[in-house]
Amino acid sequence: MDLHLALFLIFGAVCVAGAINLLVQRHPINSALSLITVMASLAVEYLLLGAEFVAAVQVIIYAGAIMVLFVFVIMLLNAGEEARTGGSRIALVIGVPGMIVGSTIVAWVLLKRSGTGDVAIGSLPGDPKTIGWLLFHDFLLPFEVTSVLILIAIMGAVVLASRPELSSHLEKER
Amino acid sequence: MVPLSYYLVLSGILFACGILGFLIKRNIITIFMSIELMLNGVNLSFVAFAAHWQHLSGQIFVFFVMVVAAAEAAVGLAIIIAVYRTRETLNVDQVNLLKL
Amino acid sequence: MTENLHLWVIPILPLIGAAINGLFGRRFSRQRVVTIALAASGAAFAMALWIATQFSSASAPYVTYLAPWIRAGNFQVDFSFYLDQLSFVMLLVVTGVGLLIHIYSIGYMWEEGGFYRFFSYLNLFMFFMLTLVLAKNYLLMFIGWEGVGLASYLLIGFWFTKDSAASAGKKAFITNRIGDFGFLIALFLLIKHFGSLDYTQVFEAVSKLPVEVNGIGLLTSIGLLLMVGAAGKSAQIPLYVWLPDAMEGPTPVSALIHAATMVTAGVYMVARSHVVFDRAPSALTVVAIIGTLTALFAATIGIAQTDIKKVLAYSTISQLGYMFMACGVAAYSAGIFHLMTHAFFKGLLFLAAASVIHAVGGNQDMRYMGGLRKYIPWTFWTMTAGTFAIAGIPPLAGFFSKDEILWKAYGGSWVYWLIGLITAFLTSFYMFRLWFMTFFGEFKGNQAPSHEHDDSHGHGHGAPHESPMVMVIPLAILAFLSLTGGWIGGRLEHFLSPVFNDGLAEASEKIGETASKGTEHLLMGISIAVALLGWYIAFLLYRQRPELPARIAAGLGGMYKAVVNKYYIDELYAALFIKPLVDGSTAILWHTVDQGVIDNSVNDAADSTRHASDAVRHMQSGNVRSYAGWVAAGAAAVIAYMIWMGVR
Q1: Which structural domain range is residue B74 located in?
Q2: Which residue ranges form the domains of chain A, and what is each CATH number?
Q3: Domain count, chain B
Q4: B95 touches chain C (CB under 8 A)
Q5: Which SS3 state, helix, strand or coil, does residue C394 take?
Q6: What tens digit of pLDDT does each residue of C76-108 get?
Q7: Which chain C residues are closer than 8 Å to A102 by Cβ?
């Protein structure tokens, strides 16, 4: 049991606990906070794999922007606890055990297969310089396309979320 | 030295939890968060394989996944806000105008 | 086979007339329609006359080859036309009488609706009849055969808005069809055994076969089946039932089709196929028996009818029986001779009857006529000529031809002769009955109940009036032919002898020669006496003592009723054949097959689609979470598949 494995197991456990907590909690704000912990521990896992830039981006973008957005919306809409309505009881009865069984099988198969090799700690250093070089050379087109995608998403979000008076005001302007 | 399969198992567990949440939960926002959880699980497996094959394109892909997830989160939450305005509820079972 | 007579032009001319009038006639004026129709049939007649000048027995038969038609391995059929003495006679009769009836129809149909349609159909009929007569092979003849049936249907049902007319047209066509079925099977036998339908080839092959004296061999079967076809077309027992109903059509139609030309197609066909019949004596006997029985049978019905057209219809059936009797004793030229004279006097009688009906404003019942000879003298005199001709009074045409048949029949068997004689008596009787009832005595027209008449020619006048000149002239011409037509009898037989004298026919002709000239004159005298007796009885019953017929009818009771109701044959057929067929079709074909199988399978296809969609519909529940579940399930399936493919 070296440090690498220990760190991996600790933070892996935190991830799983956060994920399960997300499912169990009834109030969405609790789920959001557990998701933040999952992301933070995932960032550590990335570091263990040597992906520094990705880890940083994970914390900044995912945990720092996306989750903040989620929390904003939860607060804005004043989401309350989940009420127990009708819906699908079947998902609970079949889905949960099924998923547990399924993932157990997959995990067992994966663990049984040896020969996949070990990953050393920090084995592949993904420093910003190298990543940046790749982004602007080999992956230039996807990079530019994603920027267009973000632009579209911004416009869509503005239109969708705007107040009705604003959109009718826009209509009257035509 | 951690075997690759450990990372994959962890990734799988996160993904499974994401699917479970997607199916079980009734709150739209919680469902959306489960989708994000799924994406994160997949990201982990990408990075793990990148380290295994010693190829950085795995990490680049993770980068793009995050960008797309951000865009998706923005638009999705905007839709949720719009739905909340008309339906006055965040319970996905009550967004059923198409029900026969 | 020396010069090309372009025989194919003769049928084409009326076809062109029919096409022009049929397609564009609706917009033409009546004058133009008439011009086209008359031009077509007149041109055909003129061409026939021209051919008459070119015709020489030495070069007969003339063949005109137009185009190939069917080439299937060894079997071939062409559009070829054939003119020998037999078809020459038929050609002149068809075009000549046809032209006269076209002229007559101008006047008769002038005030009717559908004027252009009538002349189009008439020309169409001429086309088919000429094809039939001029064909060089059985298949082309069959086209003409079917075509005249079609034209007959169209013309009988000319006033198709009337139920009875439409049904009569259907009855004619369907009954014809039954006969055509026999004809077709005969054609199939010919193809199978002789590999051809061409006259020359078939007759050459048949003449090499021996005479079939015992059993039913190939030639007997062919002969019998041909006779079935002829019985349908020429209204013999058992397929005669359509002809009386065919009187629903306009009377010139009855004159042309059901007296002069179409119904004689059967006789022509039997005469043309004499090579086959000569070698199948049993078939010939059947022909003779059918002809004789039909002649007597129809005559007995004719004496009790009150509708003037029905009397003439049954008379036609009876006279056709005579022609078949003649063919049945292998006296083909006598049959053709009678065909020719019959065309003259029966055509005349029908046209004159039309004149009478026209004169009294549409009534066809003889009980409400009478004393018309003062009002319509032209019609009276021409009809008199026709009546005397058909009764067989010398020196008119009917006497010569009928006597020839009786003489030849005597040579076959005295039974034929006796029945023929009785029929001659009945013919004379009912024709003079008609004559007396229509033209003599008091005019009873004002007692006629006012009801819808078949020949709707009501004018609303009080007194009967003569027909216009355009109708009288054809009557006069036909009367002249009825008077003089019989005098060419001997020359006709000589003229036709190259056709019928090919060894075997001569043998049966010899039968007639054995009896002496004295017997012939004796029989001639007996038939004249019988005809005069018929006149006298009619005079007695309908002129001198008009109360007698009713007393006789009452005395005969049931038998009289049977005769008036045509021996209930129509009812018998309806019960035996029509009702089971209709019921069977309704139950089996309609309810079971059409509704049960076809409709149900279509409905079931639609229903099963609907049920399937109904089942699949539940996937679209409108519930977001169930959508999520389906998505997850689908993704899991795809992943599983990919894993499985990877593992394999």
Answers
A1: 4-94
A2: 1-100 (1.20.120.1200), 127-174 (no CATH)
A3: 1
A4: yes
A5: coil
A6: 888 888 888 888 889 999 999 999 999 998 888
A7: 636
